[in-house]
Each structure stands twice: as structure tokens, then as C-alpha cells.
Amino acid sequence: MAEEKRFSAEVYHKKDSVDWIVFIHGFGGSARTWKNQTEFFSKHYNLLVLEMHKEKVNDDLDIDKVCQLINNTLDFHDIEKAHFLGFSFSSLICLRFAILYPEKVYSLIMGGGIVKFNMRTKFLLFLAINFKRWINYMILYRFFAYIILPRKNHRRSRSIFVNEAKKLGYSEFCKWVDLIPQTKNSLIWLDELNEDIKILFVSGNEDHLFLKDTLRYTRKISNSRVEIIDNCGHVCSIEQYDKFNDIVFGYLKSVFV
């Protein structure tokens, strides 16, 4: 029988007796964007760090297929259950995964978490979908990076994601852009979420596009919590990684003893 398709992944195996954390990078990102987290959390947990753009998926993507590929990757590495750490758009992938495979999820941890796309972000998505065939995708990506991360203290995280996105290529960029509208039912997913799954959102207080909706809609989620980092933008896992790591580590220790 042919081997099931899966994502590439970096594995940090500490010992069998500790939990797994599965890292799911944001749109255009890579395992490298989790560098500050893997260095810290590999001392305490087993880690599976996905590379969703490394091996190009030849056919079209849909949100459930992405979740299936993630599940296949867990099965390949004999991971029965894990904590999932997502960032930005991958928050919605994590949320959908928890709906489809609740038995695989201890908790969801969302850095720069997104619960839904509001009118402003839907307009940006409209531009990306309609201009992707006319404008170089890196021009679009840089434009969106500046919109999402406009301040001086956001410069380093903005630069890291732009550099990683250069490795995407045009066709891969299009596939993942076309995936985003499939998350339009994300608020319905909140109602379907298993109440035993705990969720932590970690956001910067300068996350001007997504924080307001995160605070608003997490009230619908039982077992959820929001932590906000001051003087920090959307990419809090890079911009203030020490605080981000401390919040996540403290949460895991306090909730899952």
C-alpha cells in the first residue's frame, strides 16, 4: 500500500514520559520561525515542528486536507496526543484540526491568534486573491507584512517572515492564499469544539488587526484564556519571545500537572 502523504517535520525527542508539542507555523513561515521556542521547549517536552511548505503538495489544498496531512504526520511519528502551538493563520488550522481529531489534542496554544477575519482583513484577502496573478507575490506579501506589522519594534519579526516567504514560490503562495477563505465558518467551529480542550491565546497589545476580535469571540470558548504582552505586535513569539515562552510554559505547568 502506498505511504500516506504527510508534512515534513523536525523532531526533538527528549524522552517518552513527557508530552509532545506540535508546532504549526504561520502562512509563509517555516520551522525556522520557531527557533526561539524550540531551543526553550526542547528542554522540557518532545517537539514536532512541521514544515508545511518544504515539500510542495502537488494537488490543490483544502482546510480538511491540511488537517489530514497533519494527522498523517502525527501517526508517522507515533504521536497519539499532543499540545498544538499555532501562529496567526495556523490558529485556524489548529482549531479545525481540534474539531476533526479531538482525540489527538490536549490543548491549543495560539500565538498572535486569529479567531475570524474581520472586514479589514477580508479586504486584504480580497486584494491578495484578485491581484496574485498580476502582481509579484512578494510585493503582495511585503505589503501585507507592513500592514500587519507597521511599527519600528515590529521590524525584526517582519523581516524574518518576509525572508522566509521568499522560499515559497508563486504556486505555493497561491495555494495557501486560496485556502484562507475556507475558514469562513470559524465561528461555527467554536461551537463544535470539545469542551475538554483547553485554549490559550497569546497576543501583543499592538496587534491592531486581530486582538479585538480575539478578545470578543474567545468569550464563546469554554476553557479559554487570553494573555496580552505589552509593547508588542502580532508576531509576539519572535518580538518578545522570552515573555511568550514564559507565558506558554507557565500555562502548561499550571493546567497540565
TrEMBL record:
Source species of the chain: Methanolobus mangrovi
Transmembrane among keywords: yes
One GO cellular component term noted in the UniProt record for this chain: membrane
Domain of life per record: Archaea
Protein's name according to its UniProt entry: Alpha/beta hydrolase
Pfam families: Abhydrolase_1
Keywords annotated in UniProt: Hydrolase, Membrane, Transmembrane, Transmembrane helix
Domain called AB hydrolase-1: residue spans: 20-135
Molecular function GO terms recorded: hydrolase activity
Gene3D superfamilies recorded: alpha/beta hydrolase
InterPro entries (alphabetical): AB_hydrolase_1, AB_hydrolase_fold, AB_hydrolase_sf
TM segment ranges: 123-149
